[in-house]
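Example record for the data management plan.
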Amino acid sequence: MKTNNHGGARPGAGRPRGSGNKIRLEDLLSEIETVTGRPYAEQLAYNYAGAISREDWTKVENYDRAFLNKIVADKSEVEISDSAEAIENKRAAFADAIRELTGLNNDKTVE
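Corresponding structural encoding:
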């Protein structure tokens, strides 16, 4: 078998098929809790407070950005509530727009 001296696939190289990740997130968080004696979220708050008390504004900004990204990502659900009158007005406006687009007569109603 001729080998390529410039890299490429090698027989038996790489991670075996079907093998899992070496570090699972749950295991990592559990280990952090064991070592620090507090849950990870509490440790983050402790580190953040420490950065503020040391006036390490670069780290504070990094924490602020990370926390804000997490908060915004968690706020993906928005609830909108309209009154019955507002819903009816929207239906009427939609029906008018459909009539204009399709050229339907004004006597016909769209439901």
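Summary line stored alongside the record: The CA atoms of residues 97 and 103 lie 10 Å apart.
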